[in-house]
Amino acid sequence: MSTALQTPEVAETPNYLNSEYGWKSWLFTKDHKRIAVLYIISITVMFFIGGIFASLIRIELLTPQGDLVNSDTYNKFFTMHGIVMVFFFLIPSIPATLGNFFLPMQIGAKDLAFPRINLLSWYIYIAGAIFALSAIVLGGVDTGWTFYTPFSSTYSNTFVITAAVGVFIAGFSSILTGLNFIVTVHKMRAPGMTWGRLPLFVWANYATSLIQVLGTPVVAITLALVGLERAFHIGIFDPAIGGDPILFQHMFWFYSHPAVYIMILPGMGVISELVTCFSRKSIFGYSFIAASSLGIAIIGFLVWGHHMFVTGMSMYASLYFSLLTMLVAVPSAIKVFNWTATMFRGSISYDTPMLYAFGFIGLFTIGGLTGLFLATLGVDVHVTDTYFVVAHFHYVMVGGMVLAYLGGMHFWWPKITGRMYPEGWAKFACLLVFAGFNLTFFPQFITGYLGQPRRYHAYAPEFQVLNVMSTAGASVLGLGYVIPLIYFLWSMKYGPKAGNNPWNAKGLEWQTTSPPPTFNFEQTPIVTEDAYAYGSESAPEEAHHHD
Amino acid sequence: MHSVPSVRTYVIVWATLTFFTFATYYIAQIDLGQWNIVIALLIAFFKMSLVIFFFMNLKAESPLTKLFAAGGFFWMILLLGQFFVDYISRDWMPGGKMW
Amino acid sequence: MQVPLFPEAASSIARQVDYLYAYLSVVTIVMTGLIFAVVFFFAIKYRRKSPNETPRQIHGSLVLEITWSIIPFIVMLSFFWWGAEIFFANASPPSNAMDVYVVGKQWMWKIQYPEGTREINELHVPIGRPVKLTLASEDVIHSFFIPAFRIKHDVVPGRYDTMWFTATKPGRYHIFCAEYCGTEHSGMIGWVTVMNDSDYENWVASGGTEGSMAQQGERLFEQYGCSTCHQTEQQGRGPNLRGLYGSRVQLSDGRTVLADDSFIRESILNPNAKVTAGYRPDVMPTFQGQVSEEQLLQMIVYIKSLANPGAPASTGGRQ
Amino acid sequence: MTEPHSAVAEHAEHSPYLRHHFDNMEQQFDSATLGMWVFLLTEIMFFGGMFGAYTVYRSMYPEAFASTSMHMNPAFGAANTAVLIVSSLTMALAVRSARLGKQQALQMFLILTMIFGIAFLVIKGFEYHEHWVDMKVPLFSGHWDYSNTPEFPHQAQYSHQAQILFCFYFFMTGFHALHMLVGVGLMTTILMMARRGIFSTNYFTPVEISGLYWHFVDIVWIFLFPLLYLIGNARKLI
């Protein structure tokens, strides 16, 4: 790596960034890499908007009395935090940014199969985001991101329809991304890129796409039904006319449980790339990791009922969903074990992306195992709808998904921009994120078991100590997020040139120049090796000389 | 690229579809109890298959396309089936013991 | 300030849930510790020593894959089994449970006892006796949660839900609404007071000036004119309700249903949804919007009291 | 890992409609077709959500659904089914013409498809109008009444659940009609492309995938017809 940094580049090679200039060249681009950059900018904005709401929630919860804002405002805070983070950050996060950028490159394609649809999906995302944000500006929404009826359809006095329309629209953006990925993986692979040679990041995104395509339409129609019910005071979930509010929950979770796999699966794909690259090892159990991605996607559709054990769903259904939930944990466990085994006898470096991967493996293990608490019927009755749930999904979503996203961003940043980020600051920020995260969310497992219900504006005073710890952790975590934002922006101008392959990584995306040219490759590559062939003769030092 | 079916095939398919449309209409006028819905759905499935295999020419498509088409219906049935895991067992009386 | 790891355990199942939780926690800690330890060990032992080293490649091991699929699965099945055991054992209340009726409303819990006492956000129960709560909601979904008892159940509008517990330790414990229900969700809290038997008897005796729930129900029955058609001594235009509760009713469309709380509730609010065989459907008007959830419960308790043929109608309530 | 690869063969059959990122027309056509089928997958799930909810309520309130269905006019439904099936036939023939390069026939069949599609919407409009006059549109409170069915005097008892079935009726047929409108729009676009002489035996992808969409919308109706119109026709209840 050091050699690469010191190699001075004589002139900028033609690449996707300097091929055209001006805002039009960005807003009308059909290049998947530019669209990925547009997505990175938009989801970063959404992430920080969601983050502001999170900070406000944590500041409010410093004291048990609920004295900072009134309860109505607080309810809007957590609702907007949920809606923005789930639908406008987590779901598009890795697929629409890193996936959009690197999935075509990793399979040796010039672009996604439908570049115009790809651009359209970004515009749809922006339209959805505008609706969701206008709901905030108009006065907020207070239903929680789950939009449970009949509260959302009848009782809430806030801008539910605006927010629901935003989510509805954003759903189509997600569908189009998924559709594009599926077709691209099937039809656009370079010669020699067989299914058995696909990088695991591609497998993970493919599995994610299946969920996006199969699940998202159901939540779209469900939210449409809620919107219609709200607008015309007539509908199918209203108990007064014989409707069943629990049916709404079934329809909502049919998508929204698999949706958590939309969020985490691509993160798992990133970790497979990181662990192999920074251990210089071929992945342990390639086919098991690939199959477990598909397994998670498929079984993930069968387990949604574990959100509903105390809702009055039939207890036989509870039994069924509990058992299947145990089953879906197996492929996740397989992944964790295989990543760990990959490091065995490797050549492990401590570059920032690998630190994030370490963090991911640990935190995801905690997040996954605490998920089993919630799948276990006897315990779930007590801990569901408490802070235990909040802690669990933040361990998976923030400890898992956001760490993977940051790890992937650091890993591919030199390819995206052609520049290195400052390593020292990056390690420091990674440490802050890890420490701040644990301090924020670990205490919530305890408050949860002690019985603090979630979505409480004011809480019983005995929970205060743990809540203060959470808030303290959140401020560290917040700092850990702001630092990368600053140094990434800084590095775009002042970062040292990265060279084509600073990590000596395998994978087709590293075989082309940094930043990549508009059509990714000078000539369509022909693949002759398995993914992660770190032992093969195109040895690290050789790659240096090419720079 | 693909074989092109003859006009004759299309017309026969259309005639069959129309025939079954009226068949389903008239059968619905006869009280067959629970069988009314079964027959109506069987006819609908049959008509759907005709449209998919002939009009949409799925029979000439690749196995991959067939897999995706079948997957859609499978997934919808899965959605329904899992709704009914809850709904059919709501009234079962739980004994105190598990099994 | 001391931070406990477990909330107070004040019901018969609390300790069972705690043991299961402890088992899950131990497995989690051991597994996480193991993964952390191995990752740390590998990271240090196999750290990159020279920039150009190329480790020997290992591609996988079927034996290992099968091992680390099967063993976790068996452990998870043990979670499932134990959890399902507790869940099922507590699914339906014992037949000798005493009844308490809970109505959730934005943003309070309204509690009635068969004896006629009514409270808001306060629940008094005797120690050592199974208590069955019948839950109804007037508006949105709420969730009745008593952390010290380790129980929780959603309160869904348009239907009845039940939950039960046996308190084991005198004291005052939190009641929370656990399902987000609107502006003052976090204010929808209360206290359950567990009392010794004698204290409880005294407390019961001190309250309730409006008569028992069954008596209140009977008054409503007169007030709404139900008794014109549903006569208890002879056959009226509607079915005789004596002995109805708990029996199986033949419907006009051929089905039979159990005459339970939900059936009676539906029959009052939407009388024509399930019509008893031999009766005309369009005779009885709907009472939707006229009776509150609390009144409905009183009428149900009254009809329930008619189930026992020997007992006079107006002595409702406690066994 | 990689080596340069000569792409001469891929440029052999170069068409002006081959997009830069595809190797050849075959790949482009296959991608578009697969993409459409994947899109139809999402459409199945979109309608599937409604069909799922419908099935739950129908199993909950079978009698109410049967009696409420008496308000529908199966003659309209059957006529519309027939119209849609004819439009599917003309669409299939349009695709066939495109494949064989018969440009005149293609345009004619596209116009016919549009006519039948619009006929469907017009019939649907009459039907909606009839429901409106009949006070069966659950839009504004006080403007609906489910009790006036001469064939079935006891409808009043089901007035609650009747609203549910009518909600399904309007949501499902409404979303279906919306899809028909989109389909007619697609046909217009394709027709204009055909008039500009874009299609050839080498390039007819837009016709092919619009055809798939059109047939799918037809299939949805094939299910809506028996599920909404024909529930209770044979039942003489109570």
Main attributes of the structure:
heterotetramer; A: 547 residues; mainly alpha; Cytochrome C Oxidase, Chain A; globular; disordered C terminus; C: 319 residues; alpha+beta; Immunoglobulin-like; Cytochrome Bc1 Complex, Chain D, domain 2; 2 domains; 5-stranded mixed β-sheet; 12 strands; 34% helix; elongated
Summarize the structure.
Chain A has 547 residues and is an all-alpha fold. Chain A contains 18 helices and no strands.
Largest interface: A-C, 99 and 89 residues
Distance between the termini of chain B: 58 Å
Number of helices of chain B: 3
Q: Strand count, sense and closure of the main sheet of chain A? A: none
Shape of chain A: globular
Report the count of strand segments of chain B: 0
What is the molecular shape of chain B?
A: flat
Mean pLDDT of chain A: 91
Distance between the termini of chain A: 11 Å
Which ranges of chain A are low-confidence, i.e. pLDDT below 50, for 5 or more consecutive residues? Answer: 1-10, 539-547
Overall tally of domains of chain A? 1
What's the gyration radius of chain A in Å? 23 Å
Topology:
The complex is a heterotetramer of chains A (547), B (99), C (319) and D (238).
Chain A: H1 2-6, H2 23-27, H3 32-60, H4 71-90, H5 93-106, H6 115-138, H7 151-155, H8 160-187, H9 200-232, H10 245-279, H11 286-299, H12 315-343, H13 352-375, H14 377-383, H15 387-417, H16 423-450, H17 464-494, H18 540-546
Chain B: H1 7-27, H2 35-55, H3 63-87
Helix pairs in contact in B: 1-2
Chain C: H1 14-45, H2 62-89, E1 98-105, E2 108-112, E3 118-120, E4 122-126, E5 130-137, E6 142-146, E7 151-155, E8 161-166, E9 171-177, E10 190-195, H3 197-206, H4 213-223, H5 226-229, E11 248-250, E12 256-258, H6 261-269, H7 293-305
Parallel strand pairs in C: 1-5, 4-10
Antiparallel strand pairs in C: 1-2, 2-3, 5-8, 6-7, 6-9, 9-10, 11-12
